[in-house]
């Protein structure tokens, strides 16, 4: 059995949707965290400061998990005893309700529900008090433990983030099909935008791309406003955390570029404006109501960058209005925005829409959004793609 994680030395996993590992890895490196890519995340090693930094600063990660240990497990009978060896008192503190996610692959134990029960028995044994298993859809604030068995090797992790990290605490209002904030951030990073030229989202919806761009350009940590699960751990170092916040606040800078959003739906524009207001970021973006297909060239700077998530339907063959929209969008990209760099999110199998756009784009990454496989397409003249 591996040595259980101690108070200051952790094996961690920053999770992300499969396909975004390169983007997450380069982002983590930019905040001093170096690790190993695995499918769906980056494994890294570090102390409390790395744990807090990853949670506070990562724009792309979904969660930061702490690996408690890995051991061989062949039967449910031996499970409670083995689970009881971990220092649950550190992570549960006084809380006696927990959420568990269990998965079994290619192992003698194949019943994930029974595995959850054994984990609860093991934790109760260690704490000498009964612990309740709560559905993981209830109570995001409750501790979340992950147990995964692959080929009879059991890995236990505890979630340090709490609510999923895309929940920044900045956004209050939404529209249909909003992007998760971590996906919007991944799109902006993968597009290569450096925060120095104008960024436009011509299909801005509730403003997720716009808000993420402002947070980046202003060096505001995405986790500045929220709470994290590690704050309830016994080893929570409030002084270290406050120091980290204090240092991050000093990095704040006024964005040096224009950040623009357009949407033809008045409700979407209202949502974006209300979100910006709620986040105290209204001064840093200009949001207009309008149809991007009808916008005039002189309303935009000569160069800049488009990062966007246009609408797409599931039955693409029959959706003539979408084909017309993409065709018109391609046309204005070739004219009004011909000196701009372009990054567009598009379903992987939306060949009809891509053809309609008639614009040279190449795939920079593929991931899943709302259960649909999507590609981030960027202009193909970019000969030196980072990702
Ligand atoms: C997929 S949603 C964008 C969601 C957005 N990324 C978010 O996170 O909220 C697409 C948006 O494009 C807008 N839209 C559709 N056609 C448009 C057009 N011709 N001009 C401007 N906006 C348009 C819709 O109103 C919708 O809000």
Structure description:
This protein has helices at residues 21-30, 48-57, 79-83, 88-92, 112-127, 181-191, 208-217, 238-249, 266-279, 320-334, 351-357, and strands spanning 10-15, 35-38, 41-46, 64-72, 97-105, 132-133, 144-150, 153-159, 199-201, 259-263, 286-289, 305-308, 341-347, 361-369, 372-379. The protein has 2 domains: 10-159, VC0802-like (2-Layer Sandwich); 181-218 and 254-379, Rossmann fold, CATH 3.40.50. Residues 1-6 and 382-387 have low confidence and may be disordered. Strands 2-3-1-4-8-7-5-6 form an 8-stranded mixed beta sheet. The chain has a 7-stranded mixed beta sheet with strand order 11-10-9-12-13-15-14, with helices on both faces. With 387 residues, the protein is of the alpha/beta class. Helix 6 crosses helix 7 (208-217) and helix 10 packs parallel to helix 11. The longest helix is centred in the N-terminal third of the chain and has 16 residues, at 112-127. The radius of gyration is 23 Å and the shape is elongated. A hairpin with a 2-residue loop joins strand 7 and strand 8. The structure holds S-adenosylmethionine (SAM). S-adenosylmethionine (SAM) binds next to helix 7 and strand 10. S-adenosylmethionine binds at residues 175, 177-179, 202-203, 205-206, 208-209, 262-265, 268, 291-293, 309-311, 325.
